[in-house]
């Protein structure tokens, strides 16, 4: 079976899932094995599993059903944020991104619940960054998508990955190397927290 369908194995046998944090009949919560932020979890529903998020979360009852699992994953992000890490701009509870990719890389429906930093060492290219930093990532509060939202269209969604790299109000064009240098500086400021600020 292609890696694209890896989550199907976890849904069938949660105990086989590396990084499993929680599961019941409706959903799994796992650590992302390739995190793009310093804390990055996935909520994997056991229903509507082969639907695109645009379709699955057009169902209001299903969306409401998933809310408590997202809340649970948010709580996990907060509790697992290292206390010595700095938080850019406030409290960790306000520094959480909940989204779905408009064209998911994995076949089975899943929701990203993660810190907003996007400075994990696993974030290695333009596509990785733009998949979260542009409208390619459909924010949870945007569901259900309006009928005329262009992100129903896969060709449009693909163009979003090709946009210039923009971070902190600075346009890095297509230079992921320059952006990665800034993300590494940001990572240091977060990880070293007060120690970093007191020595710079």
TrEMBL record:
Superkingdom as given in the UniProt entry: Eukaryota
Query: What InterPro entries does the record tag this protein with?
Result: HIT-like_sf
Where does the chain cross the membrane? Answer: none
Q: Which GO terms describe its cellular component?
A: nucleus
A Pfam family matched in the record: DcpS_C
Q: Which GO terms describe its molecular function?
A: DNA 5'-adenosine monophosphate hydrolase activity; double-stranded RNA binding; mismatched DNA binding; single-strand break-containing DNA binding; single-stranded DNA binding
Q: Which GO terms describe its biological process?
A: single strand break repair
Provide the protein name. Answer: Aprataxin C2HE/C2H2/C2HC zinc finger domain-containing protein
